[in-house]
Amino acid sequence: MNQRQVNRSLAGRNEGVPMHVLALLADLENNQIDSPDIKRRMTDLLDEIDRLGREHLTPIGRELTAAIKAAEVAAEVAAEVATEVQRLLRAADK
Fold it and tell me: What region, left, alpha or beta, does residue 16 occupy, with left being phi > 0 and alpha being psi -120 to 50 degrees?
């Protein structure tokens, strides 16, 4: 599972945990079930998931993107160095 999938599964309002919590809250309302404690807990859960997304998942995603880009650049440089070393070795053999 990649970072984007984790973010969608955990914090995505349209397909993640919040979607299920919102559906539960809608079911409570549609069935006219008066349960302030459950509503409060579900609302608190939504707030906490939103906070996790903002404060942790978003920065983690940025850091992972930066790390991937740095690794790609390092791989390109390593390939260039290897090519140059091979060229120099071939030149030295002549």
Answer: beta
Q: Which of 36, 41, 45 is nearest to 16 (CA)?
A: 45
Contacts of 39 (CB under 8 A, 6+ apart): 25, 28
CB atoms within 10 A of CB 44: 10
Cα–Cα–Cα angle for 87, 89, 91, nearest 5°? Answer: 70
Does position 7 have pLDDT exceeding 90, yes or no?
Answer: no
Rounded distance between C-alpha atoms, residue 53 and residue 50, angstroms: 5
What pTM does this model have? 0.62
Separation of alpha carbons 46 and 83, rounded Å: 53
